[in-house]
Amino acid sequence: VAALPAFLKSIIGRLNFSFTHYLRDNKDQSSELHQWVRTNYTRFRELELNLILHKLG
């Protein structure tokens, strides 16, 4: 999982921050936080698929 840049940590460290609300409400998919979430989601999905393939093999 890619490390989250420090300035983004300050944003998500807020008590009322929600990834779900951020992604739903902020439509700027070029933002660094959107890119970070997308990259890590893809990595977790690839890991999940590799584990499934390993179980089947």
Keywords:
57 residues, mainly alpha, 68% helix, elongated
Structure description:
The protein is an all-alpha fold. It has one domain. The protein is elongated, with a radius of gyration of 14 Å.
Briefly characterize the structure.
This protein is 68% helix and 0% strand. It is elongated and about 45 Å long. The protein is built from 3 helices and no strands.
Main pleated-sheet profile = none
Structural class, by secondary structure, is mainly alpha
Number of domain units = 1
Q: How many DSSP E strands? A: 0
Overall average residue pLDDT = 91
Element-level helix/strand string: HHH
| Net shape | elongated
Span from first to last CA? 25 Å
Please report which band the strand proportion falls in: under 5%, 5-15%, 15-25%, 25-35%, 35-45% or over 45%.
under 5%
Given as residue ranges, the uncertain stretches (5+ residues, pLDDT < 50) are: none
Q: Please estimate the helix content.
A: 55-70%
Radius of gyration: 14 Å
Number of distinct helices: 3
Topology:
Elements: H1 6-12, H2 19-25, H3 32-56
